[in-house]
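Take a careful look at the protein record below. Let me know whether the structure tokens fit the sequence:
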Amino acid sequence: MPSFDEALQRAGEFGRFQRRVFLLLRGGLCLTGITFAFLFVGVVFLGTQPDHYWCRGPSAAALAERCGWSPEEEWNRTAPVSRGPEPRERRGRCQRYLLEAANYSAAATSALGCADPLAAFPNRSAPLVPCRGGWRYAQAHSTIVSEFDLVCVNAWMLDLTQAILNLGFLTGAFTLGYAADRYGRIVIYLLSCLGVGVTGVVVAFAPNFPVFVIFRFLQGVFGKGTWMTCFVIVTEIVGSKQRRIVGIVIQMFFTLGIIILPGIAYFIPNWQGIQLAITLPSFLFLLYYWVVPESPRWLITRKKGDKALQILRRIAKCNGKYLSSNYSQITVTDEEVSNPSFLDLVRTPQMRKCTLILMFAWFTSAVVYQGLVMRLGIIGGNLYIDFFISGVVELPGALLILLTIERLGRRLPFAASNIVAGVACLVTAFLPEGIPLLRTTVATLGRLGITMAFEIVYLVNSELYPTTLRNFGVSLCSGLCDFGGIIAPFLLFRLAAVWLELPLIIFGILASICGGLVMLLPETKGIALPETVDDVEKLGSPHSYKCGRNKKTPVSGSHL
């Protein structure tokens, strides 16, 4: 009885049909990578920090209206002068003069004067109070920071907007991942695209911050659904030899989204417009209903053999192949029908070591990658150009991976990319501001390194787990990626408030430790994928290159 992989090989593993689905309309399902990138890093432009703002109390607002002041005049006459080394633009951001106190001062026999409001106070010394609301922003366009006053005592709420998105990713990974296994890949993909579009529109027109946060969380849930199911659909309809390159190409489309995003943000003047621009394309993906079929591999596991066979014959016909009657009954491996648990991943020494290191690697990749991306929004300079360059830098990463992993193996490039990222972060943190070219060059190496590490961890994770635990193991370990994304914004913004370079030091330490740990993983270059836990335990031994090579894949009773 032939296996599904044998039937797919006969129908064509990467023929015209797969290329049409993968590269439809010069992008196909890969376009999902672009829109997911928009969602993943969009906060950099949605939440741009205004350069010039100050606290505006009720008396200052009334006085500005009565005196006909311009914003600059209001700021000069009513904003407190900051103490210490802070620049002039930072004066009065989180404190304001209590001008209302003049109404109760014996010296204030008349209303506050337009020429010098502070003259109503003895020694021109008005009491200072913390600002609790009413900020005024002098900028050309609005962001969520100015829309919802996410500054000073509310600054942590900006961290929350990205953390809540990653919490949505984590929730979506479990809920929609389960739903895709139960109800089908393409159904959940289309529902997720619809969900991203609807929730994204609500986010753009949110009347208040709680509504914004709730629907941004939901957009994260559905966004993760589109990314996961897109990846699964594509990899399940191509042959095993093509899955590696297909996965890397999807990651390249993610990078393409990062390159495109600053152009969108540059030409759209407000955050609502940016939000709509990165959301509305999701509705176009609903057209895939008429083009992309359900995964035949999934249909077989759900005992829907007739439909699976129809799709396989359709694939064969489109690819110029013929699927004979010998393929009327097809089996799947235990990988698709087993019910593993977390204990299976840590029960034996080698499995336990691999699982813990891979979890840390996923966590580190997410924290450092998201941290470096979001840091572009707070370090000054031309955000649009810097962001564009940082995206372009990621493209060589995919090429370097393809050139190195088959020659040097997986472990050395994985470790080197983490160490390069870690050292680059540490060096950048201590380089003086007076040599911007060197700082930019070193920071660019760090971004390239962590991008490579992020892409290699996908590959290494899948190659280090046996067949019956592979899907579950990758899903569980990659969940630490979303957990890292929840922590990253708080780590970046709160530590940067203490010292701008402090987050880089933390990122550098994490990445360097990760680089050392991954050297403890067994090398998988030239080794057949492990099929059992015993195969994994033999990895790294002198006989590991024989592991699993002559074994037949066990099959389950699921067939058609």
Remarks:
- Confidence is low (pLDDT under 50) at residues 106-110, 545-560.
- Residues 140 and 391 are 25 Å apart (CA to CA).
- The longest strand covers residues 53-55.
